Predict the structure.
Amino acid sequence: AVSARGGAPLADQLQALLDHDSHDERRRMKEIMASDPLFVPKWNVGLHEERELALRKLKRLCDSKQFGIRDFRTNPMRIFAAHECAALVDVSMATKMTVQYNLFGGTVLKLGTKKHHDLLLDGIDSLEHVGCFGLTEAGYGNNAVCMETTATFDSGSFVIYTPTPLAQKYWITNGAVHAHWAVVFAQLIIRGKNEGIHGFLVKIRDHRTMMPMPGVTIHDMGVKMGSNGVDNAKLSFDHVRVPLDALLDASSTVGADGSFSSTVSKPRDRFLRVADQLLSGRICIASMMVSGAKMALNIALRYASTRLCVGPTGKSDTPILNYQLQQRALMPLLAETVALNLGLNYVKERWAAASGFDPAQKVAPEEARQVVILCCTIKPMCGWNLERTASVCRERCGGQGYLSCNRFGSLIGFAHAGLTAEGDNRVLFQKAAKELIVTQRPRTPTRLAVTAPGKLNCLQTLCGVFAEREGRKLKVVTDIVRKVGAADVFDAWMYHESDAVQGLTQAFGEREVLDACMRVLDSTQGPLKAVLEEIVQLYALKKLEDDLAWFICEGILSPTVASAVPDKVRELCARVSRDWETVIAAFDIPQSIARAPIAGDWAGYNAVDNQGEVLRAPF
């Protein structure tokens, strides 16, 4: 791929920035998925076959040894990279991966001890032991701390019990068909006292027969609006007795006599400790969402560059990508995807430095809280970006985009799964805002006012504008909380000031992403810097355009400057469109991976009766 300012070397440089890490592992995984016929998608298949294919694909990647559960301790970037690569090929396989390795495996690794590790870790990597993660209940999603499932100490063991239908473990990935084990979260009851939520390792199926274990009820949740290769289940437990060793006891222990001790003093803090793996889960989901957006843009832009439509002469001789309509729709999405990619890379680094998997790691409470805020912010932003990107790309590809084999349908369904998995996006924004008003000191707003349209060309000025917006929104929310007092904070937060709360986290997240992009720009030079600067500027100005009314009302942008913003966005869309091939080449998604007909020789694909299936690749 070439562009007006470079060629393959420029794309390679940009790819190195975007991929960030694990370059050899990414290359090997892509080689496997591009060459093995197992990874050729099948669209008109039944539910059972789709699920089995997802498991077989995951097994093939696991066997490649390019990532493993112990990487959480030694090199977690390899696990995040595996999620990014897997999501390019099969979103169901990627979803099963994130539960097997992050939620189930990561929880066993972090909350378990040697006896659990010796029993399961090797089998997690080989899929001999497939697991699931039993946190969410039908009636307790975002308020999981109030879950009803109990684990009652009785005669040297624990009895796991689901008391009501609302206490069923719900949306349990891998649970309907493939899982042998579940990490079940439950209220630990000892002699009538609730010691808080703890994790228990519970065998839910017999390895040989794959039938549910006594007392375990498994309901298949059936067909969903997307990601149907994922086998989701409802799980319930009718007084299932498990041994003392079932308790994941890295921080809490129970003796044979019922004696309880914990390194975490408060029951609520014990819940936060056992649910800690949700943080890396949010990074895994964000990683998959970014890959999905890259795939959607790869398909849509390749098609737009080859689909000819009416030109000045009235003949079909003009690629639709030449039209401003197409550029205005796709180029801001391309810029935001690149910006989020760079922002996510920064969040990965911050999480890895404070993950807690390395016992020698000493993490200050303030740093841990900052990582929570970042994880709770980047995951929603990446999910919403995929939802918008996949939907707009489908529309901009016309009827061709509606065919399953061109992949937008699966990406849209995947995006919607990501919006609520590992925490509803809006609730995560609430959580981040709550932490922000505790950790960030409100500052007195400056008299920043951009009065010259030429300042829109200055990224440093835009950074100042984003920081000013965040500061003002933080002061608004902090003043609200201070004004109403502790007794009325809940009412204000939940019933009256939701827009202010959501707006604070949005401003924080967009400023963090822009700052991450600026740090990357500071490390680049030459043609790469030139291309990246325009992409980052388009990202920033489009975000400015989306919130233009607020900036005008606050006096940060004069009416003259504000009226120039849309024109500047349109100008940047045209300039960034010159380099689309370089950016897409940097995404490194060959047609042997994409396998979407409209991303290749779509005329040749349509020359035969293919029944909407992919018969050969590349097309």
In short: The longest strand covers residues 193-203. Residues 200 and 532 are 48 Å apart (CA to CA). The chain is about 55% helix and 10% strand. The chain has a mean pLDDT of 94.
